[in-house]
Amino acid sequence: MPSRNPSGRSTTGPSRRALLAGAVATALAGLATAPGATAAPAAATAPTATAPTAGGRRPNILLIVLDDLGWNELGCYGQRVIRTPVVDRLAAEGVRFTQAYANPSCAPTRASLLTGRHTGHSRVKSNADAARGLAAEDVTVGEVLHAAGYATGLVGKWGLGPDTGDSPSHPNRQGFDHFFGYIDQVHAQDYWPTYLWRNGERVDHPENEGADVTYAVDLFTREALDFIDRHQDGPFFLSLNYNTPHAPNEIPDDAPYSAEPWPQGERNHAAQITYTDTRIGTVLDRLAQRGLADDTLVVFVSDNGPHAAGAHFEHVGSTLPHDPEFFDSNGPLRGIKFSVYEGGVRVPLIVRLPASLRTASTPKPGTVLRDRVAVWDFLPTLAEFGGGATPPGLDGVSFRRALTGPGQPARPPLYWRAEDGAEAVRFGRWKGVRPAGGPVELYDVFADIGERSDVATAHPDLVGQAERLLADAVAGG
Question: pTM here?
Answer without folding.
Answer: 0.91
